[in-house]
C-alpha cells in the first residue's frame, strides 16, 4: 500500500540486477508511490534479462548505460526526460563493483588497474552522472539524488578491500557536488549507508555470511533489509525531506552507534 509520496514524479533508477538488488525494491516501491521512471544498468548486466520482468511490472522503459561512460550517461538523462515527458525529480545511484574484491586479491596487494576501475565504477560514476544531469539541465529544482554506501568509508572492515576507499570517495563527491547542485538548482544529493544485505554485490564479498550474522547481533534493531532501505530511499525522493542534502545517512538498525552488544558479549 502506498501513500502517493512520489505522485507525478519522474525518476531514473540504476542498478537493478535481480530481485535481490536494493534498486529492484526501490523500483517496486517507487512505482507503488505513484512515480514513473526509467530503469538503467550496464549493458552487460542486461544479458541476464531479469530487468525486463521489473520493467514490465513497473511499466517502465529500460535505457542501458555503463556508469563509467559520460556519453552513455548523457544519453540516459536525455532519453529519460524524453521518455518520461519532462525533467527528472529523483535519481538512484545503486552501483558498485571492485575487480580486486571479486578476484579476492588482498587489499595490500591491490592491482592498480583494478583499483582505478573500482573507483570509476563505484564512485566517480556518481560525479559523471551529476555532471551529465547538470550539463543537460535534466533535473528539476528540488530534485533528489541518492547513492548507496557502506560504513567501511568511516571504519575499517578488512574484507571490504578497495571498496572502502571507493565508498569514501562516493561520500565525498556527494558533499562536494551536493554543494554546487544545491546552490544552482536546489537539487539535493545524499548517501544512504546501508546494513550488509544479501544481494549479488554483497554476497560477492569473502566472509559476508559470517559478517552478516555479526552485524545482526550488534545492531539493536538487527540488519536493515533491502525492502527497508527502499522505503528510506522513497522518503528522500519525496518532498518531505527537502532540506536534507550533502548527508551520509546511516540506515543500519543502530549498528553505526554501537560499541558492543550484550548479544555479542554472551557469544
Ligand atoms: N549488499 C550490501 O551489503 C550493501 C551494503 C551497503 C551498500 N551497498 C551498495 O548498494 C548498491 C547496490 O548494490 P546491491 O547490494 O543491490 O547489489 P547488486 O549486485 O544487485 O547491484 C549492483 C549493481 O551495480 C551494477 N553495475 C556494476 N557495474 C556497473 C557499471 N559499469 N555501470 C552501471 N551499472 C553497473 C550491477 O549491474 C548491479 O546491478 C551498491 O552501491 C552497493 O555497494 C550494498
DSSP strand (E) fraction? 5-15%
How would a crystallographer describe the biggest sheet? 7 strands, parallel
Broad structural category: alpha/beta
Mean of residue pLDDT values: 96
Q: How many β strands by DSSP?
A: 7
Q: So what's the CATH class?
A: Alpha Beta
Sheet with the most strands: spatial strand order: 3-2-1-4-5-6-7
What is the helix content? 40-55%
In total, the number of domains comes to 1
Bound molecules: nicotinamide-adenine-dinucleotide
Given as residue ranges, the uncertain stretches (5+ residues, pLDDT < 50) are none
**Within the CATH hierarchy, at the fold level, what is the topology?**
Rossmann fold
Gyration radius from CA atoms, angstroms: 18 Å
CATH H-tier superfamily: NAD(P)-binding Rossmann-like Domain
How many helices in DSSP terms? 11
Give the overall shape: globular
The appropriate CATH architecture is 3-Layer(aba) Sandwich
**Cα distance, first to last residue?**
39 Å
